[in-house]
Fold this protein.
Amino acid sequence: MPTPRKVAHQSTDKGQVPVYTTAVVEQPWASYSAQDHQTWGTLFRRQRELLVGRACDEFMENQQRLGIGADAIPKFTDLDRHLRAATGWKLVAVEGLLPELAFFEHLAAREFPVTWWIRNPQQIDYLSEPDLFHDLFGHVPLLLNPIFADYMQAYGAGGVRAATFGNEPLTNLTRLYWYTVEFGLIRTPAGLRIYGAGIVSSKGESIYSLESAAPNRIDFEVRRVMRTRYRIDTFQKTYFVIDSFEDLFKATVDPDFGPIYYDLKGLDSIPAGTILDSDQVVHRGTGEGWASDGDI
Ligand code: PHE
Ligand code: CO
């Protein structure tokens, strides 16, 4: 059995360049150093505390159900038992970022790719690519929720299909993932809460997404989201708010996206911070601290 590689972004004079890998490996659990376990523990404790009253109940409760804690990096095979019983998902250990189609195919098969390696101590507050902490702490809990679990599988199948329609549909679908799975907010009786994995795994954005006056918070609308550019290297300028996972499911899984992709073809994209007249605005951001360029 070959030792899994750590495949990370390359630092060049043009900035960080993503490197892709498709290998599925075995989680080399015995190879984690004391420092790796400590990094996990530090991040786990910090986020778990910060997320009380900020992350939605489904996230907090399902994370608790996984039986993970600050003392050691979890074993994927232990998590698989919970996932299998709850929703039939399983984790596959990967070496780094997957190419789009490979990622979609895993999701469509109810396999969630989790990067096996964890960031080093200098990257505690930020790194520019997913690592074990982001993938596991951020994404795995909601895979225990039956509706969200089905949404993720349908998304994967939808991605495989979008790839046959060309590049624009793929871009539309990537934006949907970004603004839901990674950076989604949800309305609850107690107020707005976080469900996006990119937020819950970030100390700064857990606070900023809910409490800062700077970003826009807008009701989720599928076509609107599909046209909206996003930020990969700063906090988001706009967050989209869903009413429930059922509503998200009804707005995305039920409709055939074929005609929607067709309608959206050739329409201008919407800059990350723009508010439209047709938006249901929850909060109009002040835009304070926004970079003027760099929307993807
Ligand atoms: N309903 C979409 C389609 O017809 C698939 C999809 C499901 C996309 C869930 C995103 C999320 O392609
Ligand atoms: Co992610």
Remarks:
- The two ends are 39 Å apart (CA to CA).
